[in-house]
Design goal:
Number of strands: 10
Strand content: 35-45%
Oligomer: single chain
Number of helices: 5
Radius of gyration: 16 Å
């Protein structure tokens, strides 16, 4: 893998992907405080103070150099943050990474997350040299499954009741794509 790799703001056709800043707290709180958004995420709806604390931490995470290093990137359109993309190095020896996403429901169904995730996959395969990118998700999250499929990811595993999740046993779905399967230019 080509590490260390420092993220630089990236423009797509309609979006700007960039590190989060303190100025983004209200926009991020607008979706991270919602029950419907957090339903499939590993956290409960967050208070504004909790979001501010996370954003302060995420704003510093711009360099991937070791396993566990990550980006939590703001997805901006027209000067407002509408969601975020998570990306981490899971194994340097095996050149594997993981991607995840969250989008404000007001922006669903317009292809924004496909555009943002494709840009991150382009960096993962093209610049970082990842062999495999995976996504772990709640199999009840049909929108995320559909996004994985649009990105060319395939279902690799379905773990039944493998984690205690929000007061009940939950399942985990694993989707992935290999570098050789990635449709360039990204």
């Amino acid at each position: 893998m080509n590490l260390p790799y420092e993220f630089k703001p990236l423009r797509t056709e309609r979006l700007l992907l960039r590190p989060m800043t303190d100025a983004d707290v209200d926009d991020i709180h607008a979706y991270q405080s919602r029950e419907d958004v957090c339903r499939y995420l590993p956290y409960e709806p967050r208070t504004r103070d909790e979001v501010a604390e996370k954003v302060a931490k995420f704003s510093l995470a711009v360099t991937l150099a070791a396993e566990g290093d990550y980006w939590q990137l703001a997805i901006e359109r027209a000067g407002r943050v509408m969601g975020d993309v998570y990306f981490t190095i899971t194994s340097i020896a095996n050149s594997t990474t993981e991607i995840g996403w969250t989008l404000h429901p007001d922006h669903h169904g317009q292809g924004y997350m496909s555009e943002a995730a494709r840009a991150v996959l382009g960096i993962a395969f093209g610049e970082i040299g990842a062999h495999r990118v995976m996504a772990q998700l709640d199999p009840r999250n049909h929108a995320s499954i559909a996004l994985c499929r649009r990105l060319g990811m395939r279902e690799e595993a379905y773990f039944v009741e493998d984690l205690w999740f929000k007061g009940e046993w939950g399942d985990t779905g694993i989707y992935a794509i290999l570098e050789r399967e990635w449709g360039w230019p990204g």
